[in-house]
Amino acid sequence: MSDPIETAILNKIAGLEPGKSIEPAEVAKELQPEQWQRMLPKVRALALSLMRQGKLTITKKGKPVDPDNFRGVTRLRQPTEEETALALSRRPPVVEDDDD
């Protein structure tokens, strides 16, 4: 089953023109209009996870952020092919358990 926050984020950025971005608060407000501030940390955390998977890019002042070291006001957008490749190259290798 898909996470409703993930679905909302990906649907929002899927409809954007290339290079355009959204604020994480837009997603939070869509999901919980009355208490969107409570939802915002969850949206940001999931956006970070999605960035590490190469599914979106978090930007600050129009430039991609370092997923391990950023603060402040950010925006979300579709990743470029290069950004997706970079995110995937940073992921730790999958170790298969070899129980013979």
From TrEMBL:
| Alphabetized InterPro entries for the sequence | DUF3253, WH-like_DNA-bd_sf, WH_DNA-bd_sf
Ranges where the record places region Disordered: 59-100
Q: Known Gene3D superfamilies for this protein? A: Winged helix-like DNA-binding domain superfamily/Winged helix DNA-binding domain
Give the signal peptide, or none: none
UniProt name for this protein: DUF3253 domain-containing protein
Give the organism, scientific name.
Brevundimonas mediterranea
